[in-house]
Design brief:
255 residues, mainly beta, Jelly Rolls, eight-stranded antiparallel sheet
Length: 255
């Protein structure tokens, strides 16, 4: 039997093929050194607690954001994070949080205005919202504009203070968002047709979160974000082409 010795060049290609098949671009906040935290108010700075970031607190009007410093490939991806709301007032308005992909001129320093989930005026972008309203709602917005309506995500109740898992899957044309209460197991799902690269101005974008509160104690709360994950999904054709090239090289070595 002829022994196969994998030459260094093919080893590099094989490693690249495996990486293309499952590329993990963001795995948690780590020590937060690869993220930029921004705030538009004079309140106490966002706090970090057990690998969670508290973007807003129960003090007065706040608008904050956090973005990874490195832009990610957003042509096809899976993303997830956990959201928690504590000490929430009973007001229903334009406050809450958003998962955001953006190419704003301010880059990772992009910061929205007060209200509207801290997302208003970030453009070009898309924002997937968690809205503290009655009922609780989820919307998909572009260019910082939160007009256009959102979906009732009942029976999910954000004020229960339970960890809420949010997963977003994009296949290049359809964005599916799944929102689940990890304690009650109540869930909501929405699928929307959208060209995300066209919406954000290219195949790469900054990935992060925004959050805001409103005037008065009835519209404030501690909003926590944790365990952000962002995984680029390569086009099957490109991964197959690279794998085929490697197999061809291996076959030639065996001859």
């Amino acid at each position: 039997m002829r022994r196969l010795i994998l030459r260094p060049g093919w080893a590099v290609l094989l490693t690249a093929a495996l990486a293309a098949a499952a590329q993990a671009d963001i795995n948690g906040f780590g020590n937060f050194s690869n993220f930029r935290v921004n705030q538009a108010d004079g309140g106490s700075a966002p706090g970090i607690f057990n690998n969670r970031i508290r973007l807003t607190s129960t003090s007065t009007t706040q608008s904050r954001s956090i973005f990874c410093l490195d832009r990610q490939d957003i042509t096809s991806f899976t993303a997830s994070f956990t959201y928690e709301l504590d000490n929430a007032g009973n007001g229903n308005g334009l406050w809450g949080g958003c998962f955001v992909l953006q190419n704003d001129p301010d880059g990772p320093s992009a910061l929205g205005s007060f209200n509207a989930y801290g997302y208003t005026r970030i453009a070009p972008s898309i924002g997937a919202s968690l809205e503290i309203s009655n009922p609780y709602r989820h919307g998909l917005y572009t260019d910082g504009d939160t007009d256009g309506g959102a979906d009732d995500m009942s029976p999910v109740n954000l004020r229960l203070s339970n960890p809420i898992n949010v997963t977003l899957t994009y296949d290049g044309s359809l964005l599916t968002t799944r929102i689940r209460d990890t304690v009650t197991n109540d869930s909501f799902e929405a699928t929307r047709l959208i060209d995300i690269p066209a919406a954000v101005g290219g195949p790469l974008a900054y990935v992060g979160f925004t959050a805001s509160t409103s005037l008065g104690t009835n519209f404030t709360g501690d909003q926590y974000f944790s365990d952000p994950q962002f995984h680029t999904v390569p086009e099957p054709s490109s991964a197959l082409a690279l794998t085929s090239l490697i197999l061809l090289g291996l076959i030639r070595q065996l001859r």
